[in-house]
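Entry 12.
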Amino acid sequence: MTAPESDPIAAVAPASGGESSLTVIVAFAANVLIAVAKTVAAVMTGAASMLAEAAHSWADAGNEVFLLIAQRRAAREPDASHPLGYGREIYIWSLFAAIGLFAVGAGVSITHGVQGLINPEPASNFVIAYVVLGVAFVLEGISFLQASRQVKAAAARTDRDVWTHLMRTSDPTVRAVYLEDAAALVGIVIAVAGIAGHQLTGSPVPDAIASILVGILLAVISILLIDRNRRFLVGEVADDRVWNAALAELSAQPEVERVTELRLSLVGAGRVFLSGAVDLVGNADERTASLQLAALERRLTKNPFVVLALISLSAPDDRTLEPHAI
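Predicted 3D structure (tokens):
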């Protein structure tokens, strides 16, 4: 396989573990500061949408803890009991984070908004709410810019648009931070609109509706994240461009005459299990063929994105693989 910087398997890999960790840490620091400020503002103003935003930020901060745990546990090297490594743990902990966003962020926001419609209470100190939301917008924007830079750089390397890369990348941490920060920015705009509506009309209804809308937004994001993590946990395969590149590399090996089977299963963020079958050049005896296959497997696993490679011999009547149409 080719060098990591030009390796097409990087299409399913994070740019680097350090960069993803920095993105999560920046998001965590921003969300803790924002959550404290919003909580104080919610108590002082009594605004339903401000409480929804506070719940949103606390949920995001908790999610970042899950994401940091995910990165740490998934980075462990393969061992005898886990020959494919621990990479899929990143999807388990990221799934917990997404469920937490749904239960805490969306649940609290929608519930409080509905209560605000049933038992409306007037809000006050609107200036405090505007100031806190303005500061929150700046901090969330800083976090979003960090996540956006990472996503855009990775998308450019893989010749994808940002949204396609965001949905296809095997790194759930940057996907979660990017979408949560984007939702946070939209949520702040909704909250400002709700509080302004409350202030202008004197009715708590716009504020309560804003709280419900923030909750619905968080529910949509969390369901999307839950679904992506579920797909990776049950064994999603690498996309066609990565498969084609791996086929070309395997076919180019000196001892390989043709490739008749190739599977690339994602087993973590930027980690694949490669298996397949090849027809070797010449008519080597059984022992020589076995040694050639073992050497080929060792060469393939030198690629940092290939956790394990298992290659067998093709049957004479097996069909030669052709690149997938893209």
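Annotation: Residues 151 and 261 are 32 Å apart (CA to CA). Residues 240-313 form a domain with the Alpha-Beta Plaits fold (CATH 3.30.70.1350).
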